[in-house]
Amino acid sequence: MKAVRLNGARDLRLENVSEPPTPKYGEVLVRVRAVGICGSDLHMYTDGRIGDTIYDDPLVLGHEFMGEVVALGEHALDGNHQPLVVGQRVAVDPACPCWHCELCENGHPNLCPNHHFYGVYPTNGALQERMIVGSRNCFPISDSISDGAGTLLETLGVAIHSLDLGKLKIASTVAVIGCGPVGLLITQLAIQQGASAVYALDKLNWRVEKARQLGAVAWNVEEIDPRNAIQTATNGRGTDVVFEVAWADATVQLAADLVRIGGRVVLVGIPGNDILTLQHSTARRKGLTLVMTRRMKHTYPRAIALATTKRVDLDGLISHHFTLEQTPHAFDQNANYADGIVKIVIDL
Ligand SMILES: [Zn+2]
Ligand SMILES: [Zn+2]
Predict the structure, then answer these.
(1) pTM for the complete prediction?
(2) Do 113 and 190 fall within a single domain?
(3) How many CA atoms lie within 13 A of 142 on its CB side?
């Protein structure tokens, strides 16, 4: 069967790989139907690493995915502990925590130190025709959720977890730095959660426009001074919460500058150089609360509920579709922010 493997920085190859084995206890065989490309995939693609995780063998990327169950191992219960059925369409949570360490037992499986994760070294991801996944990672989805939207449930899960960490109060003000898929989902959720205003910032005009369509007051940071704009819009106060959903470079300082005294900054983006830079006096004098988003918890059921009831727009974030064979080109386009790209989905 076919798989796309990353052999080094910017070196993706379509290769023939062996078929997966038969699923064992608690596992299922899934035929992958669609895979989204994520910012963290782009980090691995361009830098050959994410944070301090460096790979040295070829790796199949892809952690935002959905597929169809084709074979069941024994005791194949889904993420809601219900029996899975052959033929079911499922979204797959890529995180595989150990479920028995202190953090897992305390309800923080996203912080499990013994976890592995589909599509992050050394565990292969979904840019392949078929793969074995844990049955517990599978969440059935109805036909009202498209394949592409099914891949975005992972992204939506990250946005939901970030909103949980933001602890928004009704009618609070929010800034979102970065209007990629996660930023656009956070924008939608913040509006739903009762924010009185969401100010969204990006460098790419089509993403600014998308944020505006979704209800944000959105600006291109290359056309206005975001500090002045937010100061003016909030009468010099700053916003209650800021979500940093960009590349976590100069935007971390920007987040601290935009938030109000005593406000909350949620850091979602991942910096290419693995360094967090923030002027200490800004954070100290404002008495800021800084929280880091680390993946997500049990958010798939909530993400599916929002998608099923169409309370978030997922399909509208997908700007491009490519085939598995076109994956190297798709990554290249995405890494270069080619015109109009918001979310790319690879359809198998
Ligand atoms: Zn992702
Ligand atoms: Zn654990």
Answers:
(1) 0.94
(2) no
(3) 10
| pLDDT bracket for residue 121 (50, 70, 90) | confident
Least confident range of 5-9, 67-71, 259-263, 320-324: 5-9
How many angstroms is it from 193 CA to the middle of ligand 1?
A: 23
pLDDT at 93: 97
Task: Give me ligand 2 centre to Cα 97, in Å.
Answer: 5
Instruction: Say if residue 105 is in the same domain as residue 35.
Output: yes
Q: 186 alpha carbon to ligand 1 midpoint, in Å?
A: 14
Residue 278 alpha carbon to ligand 1 centre in Å: 25
Q: Are residues 134 and 228 in the same domain?
A: no
Confirm whether 138 is domain-assigned.
Answer: yes
Ligand 2 centroid from CA 47, angstroms: 28
Confidence at residue 299, expressed as pLDDT on a 0 to 100 scale: 95
Strand positions, DSSP E, the chain:
2-8, 11-16, 27-36, 49-50, 53-54, 59-60, 64-72, 89-92, 95-96, 116-117, 130-134, 138-140, 173-177, 197-202, 217-220, 239-244, 259-267, 289-292, 318-323, 343-347
Question: Residues 17, 136: one domain?
Answer: yes
* 105 close to 97: Cβ distance less than 8 angstroms: no
Number of domains in the chain: 2
Which of 260, 292, 324 represents a domain boundary (last residue)?
A: 292
Cα(60) to ligand 2 centroid in Å equals: 24
Q: How confident is the model at residue 55 (pLDDT cuts 50, 70, 90)?
A: low
Taking the CA of 111 as reference, the closest ligand is 2
| Residues of the chain above pLDDT 70, percent | 98
Within a domain: 307: no
Model pLDDT for residues 192-212, shown as the tens digit of each residue: 999 999 999 999 999 999 999
Q: How far is the CA of 23 from the centre of ligand 2 (A)?
A: 23
Q: Please write the tens of the pLDDT for every residue from 22-52.
A: 999 999 999 999 999 998 899 889 887 656 6
Structural domain of 217: 158-292
Residue 159 contacts residue 185 (beta carbons within 8 Å): yes
Which residues hold their Cβ within 5 A of ligand 1, which is an ion? Answer: 38
